[in-house]
Amino acid sequence: MNDVIDRLARLTPSPSASMTEDAAADLRRGHRALSRRRIKRAALGGAALTLAVGGAFGGIALTSGNEGAPTVQAADNVRLVDYDGTQVPGFTVAKVPEGFVLQGSDPYVLAVARPEDKSSVSDFQDKIVVMLESSSAAPTDSTNTSVSGRPASLVTTPDGATVLKYTHGDFTVVIQMWNTIHLTDEQLVEFAEGVEVTADAKPSVG
Predict the structure, then answer these.
(1) Facing residues of 62 across strands?
(2) Selection from 140, 168, 134, 136 nearest residue 155 by Cα
(3) Interatomic CA distance for residues 159 and 129, integer angstroms
(4) What residues pair up with 134 in beta bridges, in sequence order?
(5) Helices (DSSP H) in the chain: which residue ranges?
(6) Is the pLDDT of residue 2 over 70?
(7) How far from chain centre, in Å, is Cα 110?
(8) Phi then psi dihedrals of residue 40, to 5 deg
(9) Which end of the chain is more exposed for a tag (fewer CB within 10 A), N or C?
(10) Taking a C-beta distance cutoff of 8 angstroms, is the pair 166, 191 a contact?
(11) The model's pTM
C-alpha cells in the first residue's frame, strides 16, 4: 500500500516557477483592480457632496477653475457697463448690463438681451425692453423714485418683472426688466438715465 501511495505522489507534478510567477501576477492584478474601485467610489462620493452643496445654495453656480477645483460664482452678480456698440432706431442707450447687447428694435420697442437670444424683439422674456406710451393713455402711478430729476414710478408685476415709468415730453417712457435679469432698482434707474428717445420711436396704442 505504501508503495502505491509513493508512486501516486511521484505522479503529481510539483509547482513550476512559471506557475508561481503567474499566481503572483494574478495577485498583483487583483490588488490594482481593488485600488481602482476604491478610488472610483471616493470620486463618486465627492461628486455627490458637490451636488448636495449646489442644491443647498440655489443661487450659486459651481464652475471649474484652472486646477479643476470648483469655484463659486454668485448668479446675481450683474453690473452695468458703458455701451459702445451700434445704436438702433428709436432709442439710444449709454449703459447695458454686462454681457448684454442691443438685440434690435422696431418703431415701438427696444430690446436689450443676451447675445445668444434669437427671439423676436416683441418677445420680452429674459430682456430689458424700452417703450413709449402716450401720456394721455398711460395710467398714473404713484411716484416713488426719479429719473434725471423727473418723478418716476417703480413697481414689480405679479410675475416678478420690474417696471419703471417716467414722463418724457409728451410721452411716458416704460422700461420693463424681466425677473431673470438681476439689476437692482438703483441700477435700473441708472440704465434709464442713459436712455434717449429719438424721432424714430412711436408710442404704443392704449
Answers:
(1) 72
(2) 140
(3) 16
(4) 171
(5) 2-11, 17-56, 185-193
(6) no
(7) 23
(8) -65, -40
(9) N
(10) no
(11) 0.61
What confidence tier does 170 reach under pLDDT thresholds 50, 70, 90? confident
The β-bridge partners of 133 are 172, 204
Tally of CB atoms within 10 A around 82 = 9
Residue where the block lists cell 503567474: 22
Residue 28 has pLDDT above 50, yes or no: yes
12: cell is: 503529481
Q: What single-letter amino acid sits at 34?
A: L
176: helix, coil or strand? strand
Minimal CA–CA distance to 73: which of 92, 52, 88, 59? 59
For 60, other C-beta atoms within 10 Å of its C-beta total: 13
Rounded CA-CA distance 135/165 in Å is 11
Q: CA–CA separation, 93 vs 82, rounded Å?
A: 9
CA–CA separation, 89 and 114 (whole Å): 19
